[in-house]
């Protein structure tokens, strides 16, 4: 094992202590050299030069660089069409090769060759992030993104990702990034981080890629509990009782770390692999749920308010205490929102619901007063829900969800819906 | 560093102790499921099933499977042509996306998803090897290879490879593969291997890929010497003097290990990275040469023999001793062969020369009686040559070689050529 | 974890690439310098000098060196006696400190300081081996061994040892030592080694010390079986069926590796830790036995032969086939030998029995025709036995063995003894 | 390398996830069992029981436990005296063995056997710390400390220690201890720690022991500078210029971490090994100095004040600004203090001076206004000094220091002394 683990160390060490300054040649010339046959020989050096050139560029220069990629290194649609026609006739391997070659923009090979430089993968992810930020103002640049996406889908293939346990023994430079990237329940400082990682009822897992070993791609925070929790404040309370008779693992926060990998999805794999990991290490844990926000609820209630006084009442509440008397209504309306509010494509309006239901999870429980923070009150009037991951059923749930737009839900959720609708009708 | 190195261990451990038996569903159905939206959910399991199915197949079944990939999961040339035409007109990002999607055979996505399974990369490399072996009999299958090549070029991108020092402390299962894959000067057994790895004047380096940590991709064996060596037997002699005043590193054997990665070239990068590594560790070593066979020489002499009595004389020699008197002629003819014998594309006939000159090396010295083994006598009448790697000049050499077909050669080589041609003319 | 594992790498790397040549000063002067206060400053360099001096010594010079240690760096018995008397009166801590200081030969501190040099621990173990080999001719030198033993007992304390799984992924330089040190059933070559390590029904474990990471201290080879095996040839047969329904782990070979650590016992701890390890990894394995030789049996039969015709018959057998008819007698006599043949201190004559019974094992089964090799025939007329390690009972067994000299044995063993004695009496 | 590094991981993992509760038997009985032959069998379990018993004890119970060790497990002075007399007569190895056995208190073997339990080394270090804290009130217990010291000197032998680079990639649980143990210039929080570790002109190194891999034993913080620094505030300033043309490494803080290892000295080795490490990694650094406090200066000035008005003036200064005008006097008096103020044994009064001069360093430069913190003003009126480590001269310096009590000092320091004495005389 150890020999193999050393491979990674080598990968990492390859980074140059002090990268050379940018070359004096214009970047388009360097790109051409890298793409030419000459590039095969001096690829690493050229790639390093181009990346170091890029790093030193102003925003305007980056726009020009991307425009160069978009216009001058595009594919030639006429040549593609001809090659396709030819292959349609001959069906010969040679003609397929030609078609594939013609159908790939030259910039894609450029990006592939740039990746030869030490540490390049990380820089290319950042380069795409720059691109994504420029697209709104310069939509034409979006053509380049097809190539980034195609390459990243290959490079960040699930088969190359590595799941790592994150704990208080993890190197500080990684932990620092966990603090930075936490997107759901902010981590304030190192003390707060310690509270998330050190107690015996907490776990954290992240995916890494071998070529970016210091950058987590996505991570999930897990709390071990007795029973299904109905309040995130209770879950994170510092003075909670640390049960040792855990039977439930709660995924209470999932954070994507790399904006530059937008569209390359890891969350589904991460949750499933973590479930398997926990099952192996903690056989006593038999239930795997989330404690998830309902981010679109308040907006939906607002639309509903004119017709439904109980929605309006909920929206009027100025602090959690005021919700208490309305808890039943909140739970019923949340059930209705998650089970009935659909987009034009038939999928739920709520993005978190779409994510977990799309992963094959089931809508399990609905809680009022579950997130009494200002943000919880604002976005969902304190409601939160548990999605349940039952590995035996995720495929079937997912299939029904995808093909029939059917939301898998517990009896409790259906009962709430029924009650709510009855109430709604009565009013 | 250690944290990062652990990532790799995790990668490796992910392999299932006992992989599940093949599923009962037909493989084409499994492939369809993996490609469908359902595949996103249960990808790892489906991929594992398909691969385990594949492993259990007979040769005929594999042919059918590949035919399925070739025919049923191809791209649609008509759709490609239409998408190309559309993009030609609009130049809109959406239309480029559509074109890229249409121009990619569905089997490529299938292979990408198969790679999710633990240990899949290695199996896909083997699958391509099966394919390459079937192509001569079923040329139609070569269409699939375009997809393998495209993916492998991304996956085995230089930026993801890891250089490892191989020595007597390397795990036995890796060393076993070094014995198996050595292609130039066979390693007979473990004792022989030890002689290649253990002495202080020997080095060995290999490239690995993080997802195939137990499989070297290519390796090079290095001997440290005083001066440029002119005999492989002397170089490998067991009783040689172990100089400590080395000034020369000799690459005397380079072996590709993975036939399934044919066409994905690593040798060029390997040599250059090893030169850099050795320069750092052994500052006293200032010269980097090969001691290379001249595999096409005897064949070329045979063609030449009718007109050139000295070639005929060389071909008549039945043992190395007989070459002794003809050593000068042999060296002159070798120079002529390497500098003048060209293919229709203007590149040297000799494949080893093409490889090293194409890497930017220079033809440095030519030796007679340098390989007196039966094989050396047969293929090159005992001649061997040194190619010199001077990192300062490899780019320029390579450029002249590629653009002008110019062979970089030392004065000694040119002098031999001149003498040989003078002799030739006189006769 | 990884951070901590790196510690070891550092330990290892500390060894000098090329140790300096021996200093010109006489070794006794260097030793004096190392022991003086000056030594604190330049200890590492002095220690390295002394060890390199020692390595270069002839046998005679080593004898002189040891004599110097024995005579000139001894304790002073008069000073010890005085300090003891003083402490007897005052019982003051200061006087105890003085007594401890006086009661420690100066050479002990010398050895402790020698250990500062990189790689010194291994060299000191070799130095003691030299000493042990000289003692028979120069018994006076044995005084030094008290100091080696005292230090090694501290340094090689069980708490510092590390259990490692040895398999086909272990570095070749370690495996080479497994071949070299195997003491029970010789490993002929690398192919043979592979057969011991690679099959799924084989395991091997070794103890290492952090300061000698390339030197196993002791190792045990384990075979997984269904049922308790009664033949070592069957156990090691190349074409055996590889059961997967293992229920028994068989320790069929235990080898001490470091003669220089004689008297520092590891075997007991090793077996117990391996039992725990296997229990955790292979819950289906519920029985832990040895398959052990009976090395003293033939000698004992020879003594017995005049009175016991069945012993004489066994001794006459010239090949295993001839034992077949006498198998019952052989098993009865083996039971008698192991249960009744005692040394003057009441412990069994058989050294292997003493080891395992002393560890708390129980004499479980007795087999004839269990080792049909020439050596098996010679030393035990083909008999072998299983000792059973039942962790629940080892303490109690050991206590009875130590305090009452009682041999824990199965009903089968007792029954054989009874039958044998009945037969014996009848004749 | 990797194989060996894994050894450590194993060491570490051995710790039980949940240690068993204390046994019901009284601890003295458990100790007796561990010391008896029975202990050999069940040593690990007994050792674990005793340690877990100890952990659960109240302070009073610990005193009783130590008293048991002191009285009941002591050596027998009469037996020692007899054995010494016998060995004095016979000089036989057997009698030496007997003497050694008698001269070792039984508690020493007990401690050795306790160390078999996983994680025991760390617990024994803590146990000694308990002991050291009890000794002032119960001086009799100090007899036990002889045994702890003897064992720790063997166990923590320089040859077993491991030097580790500490940086921002070090695991958080180790870094947390660096914050906790920093003894010279307090680290306030994680942000402050980052400033000590992350900048390119900072280094930190620590010694670890393989059996306590999560506990640094001692660490040193290093700043890289251009020239010899004369102010700790400037050295630690957040906005300093980060020179890349470093020529000097400054050891500005050395902290012992384990009070339980008091008397086992590591600082000398640490500094020298770090000097060697830095020389190898940063060849441009040619000077190695400390920036050290002068903790006893103010006290000495107070004694001097009656006779020396310039000392009195310095003591009157209420803030650093007031020292400015007196800087010359301060530097002269500091020179006088370090070169002339001696204890009865002839060594300098100043403890920091004793440490560095005893290591073979040279008193290099003396600075006023070098530590303008309240503590710096209080203890040394803002003076600090550089001690210079010149590896070529440390031995010679140390020898003169130890044998002739000679303080190695630069010309500048001697010049200051001369001026000061002249001034002093004049007044």
TrEMBL record, chains A, B, C, D:
Transmembrane stretches, start-end: none
InterPro entries: Malonyl_CoA_deC, Malonyl_CoA_deC_C, Malonyl_CoA_deC_C_sf, MCD_N, MCD_N_sf
Domain Malonyl-CoA decarboxylase C-terminal: 159-390
Name of the protein described by the UniProt record: Malonyl-CoA decarboxylase
Family annotation (PANTHER family): MALONYL-COA DECARBOXYLASE, MITOCHONDRIAL (PTHR28641:SF1), PTHR28641
Domain (Malonyl-CoA decarboxylase N-terminal) ranges: 76-156
Species of origin: Paracoccus aurantius
């Amino acid at each position: 094992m150890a020999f193999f683990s050393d491979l990674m160390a080598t990968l990492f060490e390859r980074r140059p202590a002090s990268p050379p300054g940018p070359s004096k040649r214009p970047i388009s010339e360097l790109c051409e050299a890298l793409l030419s046959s000459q590039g095969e020989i001096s690829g690493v050096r050229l790639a390093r030069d181009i990346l170091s050139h890029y790093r030193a560029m102003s925003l305007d220069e980056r726009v020009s660089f991307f425009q160069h990629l978009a216009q001058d290194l595009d594919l030639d649609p006429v040549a593609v069409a001809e090659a396709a026609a030819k292959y349609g006739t001959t069906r010969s391997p040679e003609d397929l090769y030609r078609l594939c070659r013609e159908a790939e923009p030259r910039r894609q090979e450029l990006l592939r060759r740039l990746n030869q430089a030490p540490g390049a993968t990380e820089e290319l992810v950042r380069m795409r992030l720059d691109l994504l930020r420029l697209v709104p103002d310069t939509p034409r640049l979006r053509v380049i993104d097809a190539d980034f996406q195609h390459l990243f889908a290959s490079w960040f293939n699930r088969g190359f990702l590595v799941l790592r346990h994150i704990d208080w023994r993890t190197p500080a430079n990684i932990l620092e990034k966990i603090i930075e990237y936490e997107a759901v329940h902010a981590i304030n400082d190192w003390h707060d981080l310690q509270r998330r990682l050190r107690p015996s009822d907490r776990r954290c897992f992240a995916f890494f890629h071998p070529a970016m070993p210091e950058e987590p791609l996505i991570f999930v925070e897990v709390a071990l509990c007795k029973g299904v929790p109905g309040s995130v404040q209770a879950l994170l309370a510092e003075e909670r009782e640390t049960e040792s008779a855990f039977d439930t693992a709660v995924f209470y926060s999932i954070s994507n770390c790399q904006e530059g990998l937008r569209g390359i999805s890891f969350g589904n794999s991460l949750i499933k692999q973590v479930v398997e990991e926990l099952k192996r290490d903690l056989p006593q844990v038999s239930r795997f749920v989330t404690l998830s926000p309902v981010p679109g609820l308040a907006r939906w209630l607002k639309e509903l308010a004119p017709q439904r006084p109980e929605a309006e009442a909920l929206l009027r509440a100025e602090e959690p205490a005021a919700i208490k008397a309305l808890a039943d209504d909140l739970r019923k309306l949340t059930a209705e929102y998650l089970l009935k509010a659909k987009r034009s494509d038939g999928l739920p309006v709520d993005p978190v619901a779409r994510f977990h239901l799309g992963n094959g999870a089931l809508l399990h429980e609905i809680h009022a007063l579950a997130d009494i923070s200002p943000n919880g009150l604002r976005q969902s009037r304190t409601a939160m829900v548990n999605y349940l991951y039952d590995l035996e059923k995720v495929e079937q749930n997912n299939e029904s969800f995808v093909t029939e737009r059917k939301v898998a839900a517990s009896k409790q959720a259906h009962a709430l819906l029924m009650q709510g609708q009855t109430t709604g009708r009565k009013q």
